# Entry
Amino acid sequence: MKVKGLRWWVLGLILLVTTINYLDRGTLNYMWYTKKTVTMEVDGEQVVTKVPTGIALDLGIVDASLSEKEAEDQQKSIYAIINIVFLACYGISQLVSGKIYDKIGTRKGFVMSVIIWGAADALASLARGFKSLCFFRGMLGLGEAGPWPGTTKSNAEWFPQKQRALAQGLFGAAASVGSILAPIIISMLFLAFGWQTTFIAVGCLGLIWIIPWLIVNKKGPREHPWITEKEREYILSGQPEAKITTDKGKSWGELLSKKKNYSVILGRLFLDPIWWMFVAWLPIYLMQVHDLDIKQVAATAWVPYLGAAIGSIIGGWMSGRLIKAGYSVNFSRKFTMLIGASVILAAVISILFVTNIYVIITLMAFVLGAYQFTMTNIQTIPGDLHYGKSIGSLAGLGGLAAVIGTISCMFLVPVITQGGNWSLFFVMLAMLVPLSLISIFVCAPKLEHEV
# Structure
């Protein structure tokens, strides 16, 4: 049996599990501490009010006797700690997963990651307090990090260089689709069945995905029995690394000794926190600043991620289009990054000067759309600088740096938003953008493979 466009089937399965990945990580974000609208009888009259609800209160992690403002500040501090535990494990996994995927391949690597994170999310239904919840979220982080270096490696294997940014863009779009669906699906499940059932239902999705993955992704493009000769030739002829007969992966020490690799490491150290700040804090921002209940959050929180999905695809398409038009990889990637970074900066700064929730949500869509427009191209740099067995390792180092930057920002959020003023939050995001672009342009004056 021969399958036309087999590389797109492989990528399609990665996109599906990436969407599931973001549903899994979104479970806590939308069930942690939120509000629901209830109708109460007061002095014989029906009064509609919003009351706090969520895991933090159900497990007694947040003191229910505190005033609403005090409870909001307390839950932010505890929530930040839980997310830092997740991110610390995620960062360790990013580093280790890159090496593991380089060693055992993407087929087995994805299976390993999905089993760990799917089980972690389902088992979170057994949490009984702060410590057990931290444990399960840490376990989730260990599993969920793998697809990022894994997808960079898979795209380098299955796509010619000119299509890699598009493939990476579709991958970023799938993460955005997961973030679009998360507030809707998780909120519906939470309101209908409670948080324990929601954890179990979402956690099992990835485990089911393993079955088609093992069936379709049998081998790489060189040896896969289903690939057509035309597609095999198209893929391999467009890969500079296909000309390399001996491919010994570089050690972390060798990668860290080269200045050009810090374009990935520092670029992601500064830019990635923008994405994570929205993923972690958007529901709480909408609740605290704009007094939205869980249904209203579900109705609005997906919009910025729609922008992210569009930006991710366009960013990948644009650099690929420039390469196809005859421009160098170096120019195509950097020109695209520069456009994206400019839009991020303009949109973040604009948020500081508006109060209308619909305008703010629209500006956030531009922020995340431009972020993915830029990040799609940053994530292709490991494949632009290195060959096969070093790509996952450098992507893993970049992922670890991204987590370090995000943890640093995560520590700051409860402090700079105390009392409900989020202006410094957006100032912090704006400062990260030029730092990322300067790092990339200075560390890698030219994006090209070593001879």
Remarks:
- The radius of gyration is 22 Å.
- The chain has one domain: 6-243+251-443.
